[in-house]
Every structure is written in C-alpha cells, then in structure tokens.
C-alpha cells in the first residue's frame, strides 16, 4: 500500500477519518493524498451579468485559501499521532465528490480510501445513505468508512463477515495482512439462515487453507436476523473494525436497511472496511 486517499471537508467527521488514515499510513509507510472538492455554481448570465472568469477565479481562490488555513490543524493532528514524517500531498478539485474521488484514484494510483460517514440517524443509515456507499460501489480499491462520531483507538480485533464464497479467500488474506501489521486478531462470522446453502465442508476447507494462522477464528451462528446477529457479534467479540466483501451494491442496501438503524446505532463507532471481490 503506497497511497491512501482521504477526502476532506474539514468537518469533525473528516478529521476523524484523517486520524485513521494517519495510522494506516504509519503501518504501511504510505503517502496521504488529501482531497478537497468544491462545486462552482452555474449561473444565468441574463439574470446575473457578471464576469464569470473573475467570479470563478475568486471562488477557486477562496477554497484554496480555506484549504491552506486548515492545513496547520491537520499537521498538528499528525504530530499528536507521531506522524510528522508522513508525506501529505494536497489536491483541490472543482466537481462533485464521487467523480473527483474516482479521478484521483485513477490518476494517482491510489491503493486505499479512508473517508468519514455523515451522521444520519444511525450508523448503517449513514453508511448506506451518504457518499460513502457510492464510493464503495464506484472505486476498485478498499474503502474504510469511519463514522462521524468515531474516535481512533488501537484496533485489536477485526471482524470479517463472510459467506464462504471462493472469491472471499483473497479478501480474508488482505484482512490478515492488515491484522498482522496491527498485531490484531481476526474473527470470521458466518450467519447461517434457514435459506443458507452452508455445508460443514466449506468451513473445513477454509480452516485447512488458513490452518497456520494462529490469530484467526471462525464462527458460525444460526440466525434468520442477520443484522442483529452482526450487531451482537460486534459487541460480544469486541470488534474494533468490521471488514466485508462488496459483492454488489444492493447486497449492502438489502442487508442494512433503515429498520436496522436503531439497533445498530449503539455501534456507531465501529469502522467498516469494504473490500471488493
């Protein structure tokens, strides 16, 4: 991992994500790419007869100055986390956030994205209902989403929600690599519903693949309430970060609906790592 992208709007939400990004950059000796986006207004020249070039230059300059004024605060945060040596490059772009993120990921060869989720009425409501879900769907690199009220603490246990699909083996290897750098344990969860095609041979196969991983455990929990089971798993197993494979967007939207929000809000400080199949 060489480059980590952090979209910033200088809110508390993005500052929380920035701290997680700093800690990831320290682990991998990676460079941080700090992205600030803004959208210039479209005005009718017949209604507002202004010099467009001058107006746009003024707005662009204002955003650039705002970014510069906020940088000392970010540098102070980096110092607090003993990350003064982390390289930070700054990009200011005009355009909608999702398009800008996709462009920067492509142009800068970004390996990882860390971004905050705006606080809706609950954790997964914000996760699905904000720009984060669009980024997860539209970029090909892992995305770590950090809830708006999250405060960084050492990650000691990573949860990995699996369906024991073949394409998730690579994702679990990625999670294990991250866990080793963090000196963390990994706990895999399979929620067995009445409709599951789960067979014992599957877990035996996975356990044989990862038999040399001493800090890896597998859990199979029978339940038809996937959301509540994940909620309980996070609480009972002291999960600090939950990793999941992004098979397709509607899997997330089906799994974490508005009705789940109130139940999950207790765990609003748990970051989500979305991986791609």
Automatic annotation (TrEMBL):
Protein source organism: Flavobacterium sangjuense
Family: Belongs to the universal stress protein A family.
Pfam families: Usp
Alphabetical list of InterPro entries matching this protein: Rossmann-like_a/b/a_fold, Universal_stress_UspA, UspA
Protein name per the record: UspA domain-containing protein
SUPFAM superfamilies for this protein: Adenine nucleotide alpha hydrolases-like
UspA domain mapped to chain residues: 1-146, 170-275
Signal peptide location: none
Superkingdom of source: Bacteria
